[in-house]
Amino acid sequence: MNRSPPGAGGKRGVKGRRPGSRKKKAKTQKKKKKKKKKKKKKKKKKKKKKKKKKKKKKKKKKK
């Protein structure tokens, strides 16, 4: 992750610099990545089967 945090507006690599002596660092050239287009897949709707819950009968103990 080379992005600066959202709070620091593009202030990357300022850590440890003294105010007044701001040297510009030589930036290395980055190759631009080509974005691949994603093909949209059609989603098939699955029918959910409802499971019937079996009620357990509690046996009453005779005292």
What does this 3D model show about the protein?
Residues 12-63 have a biased composition (Basic residues). Residues 1-63 are annotated as: Disordered. The chain is mostly loops. The chain is 0% helix and 0% strand.
Question: What attributes characterize this protein structure?
Answer:
63 residues; little secondary structure; 0% strand; elongated
Shape: elongated
Query: What integer value in Å does the Rg equal?
Result: 31 Å
* Percentage of residues in strands: under 5%
Helix tally?
0
Mean pLDDT: 65
Q: How far is the N terminus from the C terminus?
A: 71 Å
Name the helicity range: under 10%
Biggest beta sheet attributes: none
Structural class: little secondary structure
List the uncertain runs: none
Task: Count the E strands.
Answer: 0
SSE blueprint:
Layout: no helix or strand
Summarize this entry quickly.
The protein is largely without helices or strands and 63 residues long. The model has no long low-confidence stretch (mean pLDDT 65). Residues 1-63 are annotated as: Disordered.
